[in-house]
Amino acid sequence: MTKQISAAGGAALIVLLTIGLTNDGLLAQRGAPPPTPAPSPAAPRAAAPRPAAAQAASSYNGPRTPDRKPDLNGIWQVLGTAHWNLEAHSASEGVPAGFSVVEGGAIPYQPAALAKRNENFKNRMTADPIRKCYMPGVPRATYMPFPFEITQTPKHIGIAYEFAHATRTIFMDGTPHMEDLDFWMGDGRGKWEGDTLVIDTVSLGDQTWFDEAGNFHSDALKVVERFTPIDATHINYEVTFDDAKVFTRPWKMNMTIYRRVEKNLELLDYECAEHVYQKVFKPAAGRP
Which secondary-structure segment (H or E) carries 8? Predict the structure, then answer.
């Protein structure tokens, strides 16, 4: 028994030391632009990423629909800081500190695209498309600090987001993608791989960002989302990004989605009023 207690205490000490080192790394970045390594020697060093959420496709023990698929019907929400920055970042006014959700820690930008991302970051208070009341796009709508609702049928899956009444219809009947069109929320086609819902989305245009830090994409973006329910109240959410115009290779991110279980819960209205953002964030009469 004594040996077991000592081992547990040693493990706890290691965890505390690890957390302390990680927080020191985040604080060292305070005031710096997002931490993707850049060609410039002045670029900040990315903090170590958190471990990816564990895959649990074969261990699902939650409720199922009549056609024996995992029952995802209900209201869900991501609890994290990806909306502000997918990569590791320190706290600043109105922005909580957070670990990277990107596998490997940093988004693999091409040099010119990295420079554009850094420029986006400098102008984020006015340039973020969300501040112009545009729809958030995919996958940003999923991890904004608002709930969303999934409605599941064998042939279609509907997703309704609280922010700006954004919606998606995911076709599960094998129909092909539409051609030569751009949609704010893309054109999604889904399928089940075991207990994992896989959604392939294209036609996303180039007008949305991935987060408030200016991480962006081109009109060549292809997104593959994997929703793997772990139990009745948790989904492992993995996203693969492929955009040869902006990134050096495809890359992934991972996070957890939580089911909201409050009594009488429903989506409420969040109306985005562009004139409010203009009044608060844009200069008036030459004055900041």
Answer: helix 2-27
